[in-house]
Amino acid sequence: ILIVASDIARYGLNTPGESSQGAGAIAMLLSSDPRVVAIEPESGFYAEDVMDFWRPNYRDEALVDGKYSCDLYLKVLEKVWSQYSSLSGRSFQEHDYFCYHTAVPKLVVTAHKRLARLNQSLGFAADTIDSTLYYGREVGNCYAAALYISLLSLMATIGKDIANRRIGFYSYGAGCVGEYFSGVVQPGYQKMLAFTELQQLLTERINLSYKEYEKFYNFKLPVDGSAVKIPRHTTGVFRLAAMEAHKRIYKRSE
Asked: What is the pLDDT of residues 8-46, one digit of tens each?
């Protein structure tokens, strides 16, 4: 099964959430013969209807109650961990690394310390999460892709072979829903991941001035069928070049 995780991750200009917006996506294969991580069967779930984050149909930007959302993130972590650990029988110490939904890296550090205290693990080991946060600090919050970007970050930046190591995963979606599960890294996982290309995507980015950022941010596609040419922003092989008569026109980048 091919899974693509991508979102419109943006907040309004000059809003509290603006600094945490990001850009990124993940494509991955689910298989009965896993070659990167073998997901273990036990997991803990929690869901609640809350309004900590939402995006009305008439808006391009999300709205968020930041403090409330962070508190929910921590609350749900405790609930799903408790259920997961009860079902699996695994202790905190039986996990070598921990990947979190990385909305804000500082929140992940706070959450991991709380989970360690909850499990009476007095020696907080920063190296169990440090490598998972590198990409998150580089690209910001990518919503649905954020958890798996943290996994990529771990594998690409840890600097050693972590085959046969167990990873704990905390998935969170504002609104809210959470899940805790685990997986074991498979031998030879490095062959399945394009680490050089991943780093290249980061190093080839272009810094924008604040005025350039505002212009980029405020650009909108027409919704009435009128024609418009799209400024060249992407460095990919193909790009969205124009819209005309409600049609999206793609061209090969020169």
From this structure: 888 888 888 888 888 889 999 999 999 999 999 999 999
Rounded to a whole number, what is the largest CA-CA distance in the chain?
A: 63
Report yes or no: 28 and 148 within 8 Å, Cβ to Cβ: yes
Which two tokens mark 10? 């943006």
CB-facing half-sphere around the CA of 132: CA atoms within 13 A? 28
**β 97-100/63-64 pair status:** unpaired
Report how far residue 120's alpha carbon sits from residue 186's, in angstroms, rounded to the nearest whole number.
Answer: 29
pLDDT in tens, 50-68: 998 888 888 888 888 889 9
Q: What are 230's two structure tokens?
A: 């799209």
CA distance 5 to 81: 24
Nearest-angstrom CA–CA distance, 145 and 188: 23
- Per-residue CA distances from 195 to 41, 155, 230 (Å): 28, 9, 31
